Amino acid sequence: MRTFLARWLVLAGLVVAWEWATKRAEDPFFPQPTVIAETIQRRWLSGPPSHLFLSENVAKDLLPSLARLLSGWALAAVLGITVGIAIGRSQTLNDYLAPVLHFLRAVPPPALLPVFIVLIGLDNSMQLALITFGVVWPILLNAAEGARSVPATQVETARAFRVSRVRWLLGVVLPSSAPKIFAGLRVSLSLSLIIMVISEQVGSGAGLGRTLVDAQRDFSLRGMWAVIVVLGVLGYALNAGLLALEKRVLRWHVGARGQLADTG
Amino acid sequence: MVRGAIGVALFLALGEIVGRVGIVARNYLPPTSDVVRALWVMLTEQGFTEHILSTTGNWLLGLATAVAVGVPLGLLLGSVPFLNEISRLIVEFLRPIPSVALIPLAVLVLGTGTEMRVFIMTFAAVWPILFNTIYGLMEVDPQAKETARSYGSSRLGVVLRVSLPSAAPFVLTGIRTAAAIALILEVTAELFGGGRSGIGTVIGVAIYGSGEKDVVLAGAFVTGLIGLAANLALEYAGRRGLVWAHQEGGGR
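Predict the joint structure of the above. Result:
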């Protein structure tokens, strides 16, 4: 409880110092936090009380971004976990695919934008495909590593009991790689925020990325800062949500705490 | 190794077939051979090599900056738990801010050149280094630290001579992740931030100007190769340079 208070105090102190410094500097590039807060309030939080003060712009900017981000990430999770476990459990598959996978992982997603644009069109599915391609790698590589390192005792035990293939995968391999997979999911979640912004800056209609581009075109510095702050808060909330989920899912896992900081 | 080569060959062949068979028009998704030809033409023109060097140089600078910020900060936060506790919230708000969203602002403040790119790269790549350093410090054998203390090492001495070497494999894992992130952001910053040098600007011209998809893919291909080479080099450095960690089974 005391550290909790101390954390918020330090954060608040930093914001106050920021306010003071920007007020003194009067640099147009660095608006005061209060000005940024006002911009955020006017754009997103000026709705009627019946809507929890959320204005229409929330449905216009935030919701499409959020939907895009979450579905792209979920798609990457399904794909990454499946392929990752397959590669982790099959040395042959790993030998064939490892170089290609490491290469694809190093390709910057924005460079592939034009390809996605022509292949899938300038709409939602292009953005989904780009997010999925961009964030699948940490999940895939972590799942592979987790599946590779299933303890030998568990492998032997499962074999001795002639556990069926499905139960072996779902009951032994998946739980055993879960801490690693969650580490990958966390990295991917912050990545999907990045790629969401990129895809919206270039792609279609609504979303936070679009709002940012508009602010940039109008040379509205407070508008840019507002989007940046909202993205930070959004990322914080998403990460906190995932951590809570991880704590619940991995409660049984003794070593779970030890795995938390590992980002392969 | 052989199988890896077969895998690569199959991947390239797939690209050739998809490009040729006409599922999509050839100038939208060019087959592998067109990309290779475009790459060859680009490499023989001397300008492109300079773009590659510029990207690589900037990227190494950005990665070095991220290491120079992340490792000392990680050592500080990792060895003084109090500071780590109270700064947690600030870190958790800063980290998720997508660095691409900072590009427009950074361009206005820092211009389109190296400073802007290094800032963007550092902002994105410092986190894995920071977290892995802190995490590595938590795993240091307390007995080793006690021993060094009782032989009269100062606090800083213990951190530098005991904790840092023992956390090194974790730090290196962080640097490997950071290298990939920094490379992606260097090219993205070139692409979106404007400027005149780098693979990203070549890709940008091909996207918005000439519309040559083979040039775009060739640029992406070169970037992928740089990332692959970096990953291999760091893996090798980890195996050779951190021999002690592997002997004790502490590395990964």
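Confidence is low (pLDDT under 50) at residues 256-264 of chain A.
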